[in-house]
Amino acid sequence: MGEKGDESGIPDAAILLEFAEAAIGADPARLDAARAAVIEAMGGAALSDAAAVAALFNAIDRVADATGIPLEDDKAAMTTEMRAHLGIDAMGTIPEAADA
After folding, report:
1. 19 closest CA partner among 60, 65, 95, 42
2. pTM for the whole thing?
3. In the chain, what are the domain boundaries?
4. Which has the closest alpha carbon to 18: 5, 52, 49, 43?
5. Are 5 and 17 in contact (CB under 8 A)?
6. 50: exposed, middle or buried (C-beta count within 10 Å: 0-12, 13-18, 19+)?
7. pLDDT tens-place values along the chain, 100 residues long
8. Which residues lie closer than 8 Å to 20 by C-beta, 6 or more apart?
9. What's the longest Cα–Cα distance across the chain?
């Protein structure tokens, strides 16, 4: 996800970024360590808040995907090769709804 947030001005940004990266990763030990770091630095309530924000971003993305919201131009440009490799563009789109 890039830099570790040291210049963001957000308290404990590096810890929160590590938690976010661990939450979307596939390493349970890394996630356990990230959870422990959030609790140690900010407390259990902060862990709940951070997990809720991560889950919300995941949900928003899934809703956008499920409803066919178009990919933004900059993201389309950044993912051209990946989408071609995975065959994502060949999956098609949802037809426009007919006016009633």
Report:
1. 42
2. 0.62
3. 13-91
4. 5
5. yes
6. buried
7. 445 556 778 899 999 999 999 998 999 999 999 999 999 999 999 999 999 998 998 888 888 878 878 888 898 899 889 888 888 877 766 555 555 4
8. 1, 50, 54
9. 56
